[in-house]
Each structure stands twice: as C-alpha cells, then as structure tokens.
Design goal:
The protein is α+β, with helices and mostly antiparallel strands. The chain folds into three domains: 80 residues, VC0802-like, CATH 3.30.2130; 127 residues, Alpha-Beta Plaits, CATH 3.30.70.2510; 108 residues, Alpha-Beta Plaits (2-Layer Sandwich). Helices cover 24% and strands 36% of the residues. Strands 6, 9, 10, 11, 12, 13, 14, 15, 16 and 17 form a ten-stranded mixed sheet that branches. A hairpin with a 2-residue loop joins strand 14 and strand 15. The longest helix is centred in the N-terminal third of the chain and has 19 residues. The structure holds zinc ion. Zinc ion binds next to loops. Belongs to the pseudouridine synthase Pus10 family. Keywords: Isomerase, tRNA processing. One of its GO terms (biological process) is tRNA pseudouridine synthesis.
C-alpha cells in the first residue's frame, strides 16, 4: 500500500496523514501499530491515532480481529495501511479442455517476460483463477489473488457435476462488502462455455487448511483407446473394488518425490463405443492418478486397466463427473 508522509510532528499533520492513508479503504475494525524509539511517543501517538480513526471512520478498534492494520512509522515519517485479506469460498465447474486451474508463470523466464511468452511473463493459456480474478479483483480493488483448490484437475480435464470446492483469497483489498450473488452472476454470464461458479460465501482463513486437507472420492468419466476390444471383455471390469499400488507418474516425477501409494478404484460402468474405443465410469479414492491407472504407466501403476484387460489402453479424454466429499 501507499506510504503517506507525515510532514511534521504536529497533531494536525498526524491526523491529516491518517485521513489520507485510510481514505478509500473499507474497514469496520482496525489496529494501530506505532514505530518509534521513544516508548512514551509510541503510547501517545497510538492512543491519538486510535481515537481519531474511531471517530473519523466510524470503525471499531479491535487488536485481535481487525480488517485494516494501520502502521504509523513515526520516526521515519510515514503511515501505511494494510487491509487484511478477504477469502471467498465456492464451487467451480470447468467446461473447456483449454483452461488450467491456476495462473502459471512462463517456465522459461519465470515471470520476467521473454520471447516465448510474448513479454507477458505468463503462460498463454487461460485459467479458472484468472477468469474469476478478472471480475473479482476490480470489485474488491485488490491487485492479486491466491487460489486454493480442493485438489486440482489437469488442464484438459472437464470439471462437471456439482463442481470443485475452492477459496479465492483477495490480497489487501480496499473494498470488502461485495454482493457475492451479483459477483456470481457476473462471473457466470461472462464465461459461458468456459467456467461457472456457485455458492460463493465469505470464509475465515482456516478454511484454506481445511479444504486442502479434506480427502474426497471422485467419479470420472474416461474415454479410452485400445487396439481391439469387445463389450464382453469390458464386463469383466465392472463392480470390482480394485486395490492399486501407484508410483508417482513419469509425467509428474520431476516435480514430486517418487513414492508408492496404495489407492482404490471401482469401475461403475464400462461401455463399448466401437472396437477400438470404450468409455469407463470410475469411482476413485483420493489422489489416484487416473490416466496412469488406465495406461499402467510403464508398470508403475499396478494393476491398471491395461493389465486387467491384457492389452494396452490409453486415456483419450477425461472428465470429473463428481467430487464426493
Ligand atoms: Zn517468458
């Protein structure tokens, strides 16, 4: 936030600077901190500032739960106001295979801007985060957001059904009493065929940890390719609860430690599309890599659809039908 200078040691200058620093920022509660070498000055300035802000901005002083933190750098001669972050929770659906979940910096320049990213510093792909941000940031007058998803899906995977739980955290917003129903409608009307959100509500910071640590099952719909297959062979997969050992997939190995995990899955439906294509509906336990469960991932996932059918299969298209929390 902007640093507002305190021009001299007079009370008037302090109040003028406080007014200028707080103007345009919405807060119903606040805390004041003062930095000064002298304890006496610290105490006096803090008390004066609290009284002034209370009466001028009709706001409550609350040192535990505050919406703005006002720092008076008395010795250095300026005031800085930091609004606390606002968190909005909701569910999102994704209807496009070209939209990632979150914003990513360009891999080559890591955000500085280069030829590859056309000097933007970011990957050219759209993301759920950015589509929500585009409408949300201007309303809250926030410069950036953090996006916390309850898990994630790959860019080319649709997120259907009731949607995926997420929290968008608005960093240092100047406005906070936003009508979330209107926000929801605006996001949805501007993003037809891309994404939609529902059930937006304000939440506390601890929700982020909660949704990150909530295990959930998922129902997937997978379109698979194979050399040749019959409905009869597919029937053998249905309704068995399958215990799976899965090592970290080759495609994510570079980013994450190679671990062997035990997962489960149940094939709910298996349907032949033509002799080389079939679709599966799969109920999977938390964190099963489904594309690898289908292919076998060079035997790093055992068993797999490939190993159970005794023929090589690959996932061509994947959708999340439902997240079961
Ligand atoms: Zn770049």
């Amino acid at each position: 936030m902007e640093k507002i200078p305190i021009k001299d040691d007079s009370e008037k200058q302090l109040f003028d600077a406080l007014k200028e620093a707080c103007d345009g920022i919405e807060f119903s509660s606040f805390e004041v901190g003062v930095s000064s070498e002298s304890l006496e000055t610290k105490y006096k300035i803090r008390q004066k500032s609290i009284d002034f802000v209370k009466s001028t901005f009709k706001s409550k002083h609350d040192s535990e739960n505050f919406e703005s933190y006002i720092l008076v750098h008395f010795d250095r001669g300026f005031i800085e106001v930091t609004p606390t972050n606002v968190l909005v929770e909701g569910f999102y659906n994704k209807f496009s295979r070209d939209i990632a979940q979150t914003f990513h910096y360009c891999f080559k320049c890591r955000g500085r801007g280069c030829k590859k990213c056309n000097k933007t510093g970011k990957l050219s792909e759209e993301s759920v985060q950015e589509l929500i941000e585009k409408i949300t940031l201007p309303l809250f007058e926030s410069k950036e957001s953090k996006f916390h998803g309850c898990g994630r899906e790959d860019k080319d995977v649709l997120m259907l059904g009731k949607g995926r739980l997420f929290v968008i955290e608005l960093v240092e917003p100047k406005k906070r009493s936003i009508d979330l129903k209107n926000l929801e409608e605006e996001i949805n009307s501007k993003n037809k065929n891309k994404i939609s959100v529902r059930g937006l509500k304000f939440v506390e910071k601890q929700r982020v940890v909660e949704i990150k640590n909530t295990p959930f099952e998922k129902i997937y719909s997978a379109k698979c390719l194979c050399s040749e297959i019959s409905q009869k062979e597919l029937e053998t997969l249905i309704n068995k609860k399958i215990k799976i050992f899965q090592r970290t997939p080759v495609r994510v190995e570079k980013r994450r430690a190679d671990k062997k995990r035990e997962k489960t899955a149940k094939i709910l439906k298996a349907k032949l599309i033509n002799e080389k294509e079939f679709s599966l509906e799969i109920l999977s336990s938390h964190g099963l890599y489904i594309k690898e469960f289908i292919s076998g991932d060079e035997k790093r996932t055992e068993p797999s659809i490939s190993s159970m059918l005794g023929k090589e299969c690959v996932c061509k298209e994947l959708d999340v039908l439902e997240i079961v929390i």
